[in-house]
Amino acid sequence: MSMIRAGLQRLANIFSSGHGVLSRFVTNIAPSQQQSVVETQKEVIATCNKLIQEKPSRNFAIIHLLGKQWRVTDGDLLVVEGYWPPNIGDKIKLDKVLLAATKDFSLIGRPLVQPGLVTVTATVISKGLSHTRTHFKKKRRKQFMRINFQRAQQTMLRINSVEIANKINEDLRNVF
């Protein structure tokens, strides 16, 4: 019991003294290299710009299209349900990019990536109807049965390219 009291007494002395536990930990840690936030940001942006120019790799993006989010890369096929006006063969540019990335870095939008920075292009391949969905309703012992069939409109897109077009943090020209 006396050992416990002695340990508690030591803790009480540490907390009651002006230095405290935190100051003891801080003084024991070796001083690290301090860098300002602005310098770190500039280094990260310079590294990303260098990677964009030197190492073209397979980019991917997360886009917002007709109320859903899609992860797309070059050559992907998307089947979008619901009415959509573009015709077969139309080339479209998908502007609502939430995130764009390569294997080396990611560009995350808040909520969208800067307009004009990432270009996602697609081609409408086909338009048609989905497979037939059957809605069958029955109430047992009531001689009630209903069968309804439903087919939704679908548009199939092929993603042509996902490109990180400009350098990060540069002035954008002719965005739209």
Kindly estimate the percentage of residues that lie in beta strands according to DSSP: 35-45%
How is the largest sheet built, in terms of strand order? Answer: 2-1-5-6
* pLDDT < 50 runs, ≥5 residues: 18-30
Main structural class: alpha+beta
Number of helices: 3
Shape: flat
Tell me the span between the first and last alpha carbons. 77 Å
Keywords: Ribonucleoprotein, Ribosomal protein
Family: Belongs to the bacterial ribosomal protein bL21 family.
GO molecular function: RNA binding; structural constituent of ribosome
Pfam family, one: Ribosomal_L21p
Summarize the structure.
The protein is an alpha+beta fold. The protein has helices spanning 2-16, 20-28, 37-54; strands spanning 60-65, 68-73, 77-81, 91-94, 97-101, 106-108, 118-129, 133-139, 144-150, 153-164.
Kindly list the characteristics that best describe this protein.
176 residues; four-stranded antiparallel beta sheet; 10 strands; 24% helix; ribonucleoprotein; structural constituent of ribosome
Give a verbal description of the structure.
The protein is an alpha+beta fold and 176 residues long. The chain has three helices and ten strands. A four-stranded antiparallel sheet has the order 2-1-5-6, with no helix packed on it. Strand 8 and strand 9 (144-150) form a beta hairpin. The longest helix has 18 residues, at 37-54. The model is unreliable at 18-30 (pLDDT under 50). It comes from Parnassius mnemosyne (clouded apollo).
